[in-house]
Write a structure and sequence with these properties.
alpha+beta; Nucleotidyltransferase, domain 5; eight-stranded mixed beta sheet; six-stranded mixed beta sheet; 11 helices; 31 strands; globular; ATPase_NBD; Hsp_70_fam; ATP-binding; nucleotide-binding; ATP binding
């Protein structure tokens, strides 16, 4: 039947769908941007949840029982099986692990997987989105749902590398989801917290969002810079964080059990359903209920495990009496790590681990003069904030603080004092040049939202050039050392923490020689000079690139992250 209804591309109706793809749990929230009283709604019904309403499902996936390339995911996964856990962390395998977590061979873990981590992430993300679309379509008329432009938002840890953020985008692309915008998890949490908490903020007020999740903990400081027409905040200093998430508590619980029963018994125990049930009990009940009292007691059972009794350690009849002192030892290094990251400012605690009463009590004890706010639905703060980020007239993050220095190698005018130890050469126009770093973003710089930064490039090619000579490759470097702020930090190979961020390929084959400047070298040979700008845009959590010649967008550019 023919209809005059507009297509999704013609319609102004917008459906915003946000995914918090977490290490241990994931969730979806959505809103219709054009509604008069827009509300952000979380998906609460999930396959395998047995009628239980929950804003998040376990980030689990299992291919073992599936036929024809299928898989089980989320709450429908059998917890008693050997499931793939924490695939999100494998998207950033170079992330430094703290010494207090059990050592793991990441390369071996990745090699043992049935697919590459980005493909497994794509399977999970795609399944979650498809289910969400089905759930959302139930609450609005079918024709309206069909014409809505669908905008997707994915949250990522602030401390992640650009390569890991790009891998998340690639996973979404493989899953068939586009267009996608990335948002930093603490930024999303800040937006939701400011939207939902009923209190007044004034210009100049500062606060810290501590997003304590399953795998990572991110902290970012914000300052209120505007109140009208909507609340506006900016990042004060570069975000900090690390792998101090609650998954580490689970891993340290396993280590505590190993120390309790000994290596030989643990080797058998860890393969049983009894251990899986005990680990589930710790994850779902014990660590969430713990308030920090040494006299607290919890009982963790290992059904049918046949463990040797050790009453002195609280182990009898396959049941471990876990005391508050035992739990403090498990929590201790993660709490210390988080406290180390927190400054003396107002603190919003969000994320799964952020809902821990013990963590809140530790922060308050360490910083008695500040207020620690813990939203009641901190689990959903990130995913709801991600959806809010696409709504007009909401609180906005107007500027971020650069977490690192970003720059490129460039041939600059030779300085006989500063450049005596770096590569140098004579250019065809007769000038002596030195190869040095040019930093176009410095750590701590205020980067305005949607700001464009132009990197001027200059090339010389022969008069009889071929089309392939118009493909230029450059490496974008990053540096976490303060010395990179110096005017002449030296050649990249000398930098202790200078490493490639991505390789950028600029394709100017669409340009004609009329757009180049012609020159003649000292030997009388003609050549062309090509000047172009690599335009870096920081619209979201990941840099994007475009190409301009004489201020006009042309050609194409691709970035391959390291």
């Amino acid at each position: 039947m023919e209809t005059d209804a507009p297509t999704a591309y013609e319609s102004d109706e917008k459906l915003i769908i946000a995914l918090d793809f977490g290490t241990t749990f994931s969730g979806i929230a959505y809103c219709f941007a054009n509604q008069r009283d827009t509300k952000v709604v979380a998906i609460l019904d999930w396959p395998g949840a047995e009628g239980e309403s929950a804003p998040k499902i376990p980030t689990l996936i299992n291919y073992s029982d599936a036929d024809g390339g299928g898989f089980a995911w989320g709450a429908s996964v059998n917890r008693m099986q050997d499931n793939i856990v924490g695939v999100k962390l494998l998207l950033d395998p170079k992330q430094e692990r703290p010494l207090y977590l059990p050592t793991t061979n990441v390369k071996r873990t990745i090699k043992s997987l049935p697919k590459a981590p980005v493909e497994i992430a794509a399977d999970f993300i795609g399944a979650v989105y498809r289910h969400a679309l089905g759930e959302i379509s139930k609450v609005v008329p079918h024709d309206y749902f069909k014409i809505c432009q669908k905008h997707f938002v994915l949250s990522v840890p602030a401390v992640w590398s650009d390569a890991a953020k790009n891998a998340t985008l690639q996973a979404a692309k493989i899953a068939g989801i586009f267009p996608v915008t990335l948002i930093k998890e603490p930024e999303a949490a800040a937006l939701y917290t400011m939207h939902s908490l009923d209190f007044s903020l004034n210009i100049g007020d500062a606060f810290v969002v501590c997003d304590a999740g399953g795998g990572t903990v991110d902290l970012i400081s914000y300052e209120v810079v505007g109140l009208s027409p909507s609340l506006q905040v900016k990042e004060l200093v570069p975000g900090t964080g690390g792998m101090a998430g609650s998954l580490g508590l689970n891993q340290r619980f396993a280590e505590a059990v190993k120390n309790l029963v000994g290596d030989d018994q643990f080797a058998k125990l860890r393969k049983t359903k009894g251990f899986l049930l005990a680990a589930k009990s710790f994850d779902r009940e014990v660590k969430r209920a713990f308030k920090g009292d040494p006299d607290e007691e919890y009982f963790v059972n290992f059904p049918m495990a046949s463990l040797d009794d050790d009453p002195d350690l609280g182990l009898e009849a396959n049941c471990w009496r876990v005391t508050g002192t035992d739990l403090k030892a498990i929590f201790a290094p993660l709490i210390t790590d988080i406290l180390r990251l927190i400054d003396d400012q107002g603190i919003f605690l969000v994320g799964g681990f952020g809902s821990s009463q013990y963590l809140k009590a530790c922060i308050e004890r360490e910083h008695p003069d500040i207020q620690v706010l813990q939203p009641t639905d901190s689990w959903a703060a990130i995913v709801k904030g991600a959806a809010l980020s696409k709504l007009p007239k909401q609180a906005t993050i107007v500027a971020t603080s650069a977490p690192k220095h970003y720059g490129v190698e460039a041939w600059i005018i030779y300085d006989p004092v500063l450049d005596k130890d770096v590569p140098s050469g004579i250019r065809r126009d007769g000038t002596k040049r030195a190869l040095n770093m040019t930093w176009f973003i410095n750590m701590g710089d205020d980067i305005q939202r949607n700001q464009e930064i132009k990197l001027p490039f200059y090339r010389i090619i022969d008069e009889d050039y071929t089309p392939n000579d118009l493909i230029f490759r450059d490496t974008l470097y990053e540096c976490a050392d303060r010395y990179a702020q110096l005017p002449n930090p030296g050649f990249p190979s000398k930098g202790n923490k200078i490493r490639p961020n991505c390789k950028v390929t600029a394709d100017l084959r669409s340009l004609s020689s009329k757009q180049f400047r012609k020159g003649v070298d000292e030997e009388g040979k003609p050549y062309y000079e090509i000047s172009y700008d690599l335009v870096v845009t920081l619209k979201s959590a990941l840099m994007t690139f475009s190409l301009e010649v004489d201020g006009v967008s042309m050609g194409s550019v691709q970035a391959k992250f390291s």
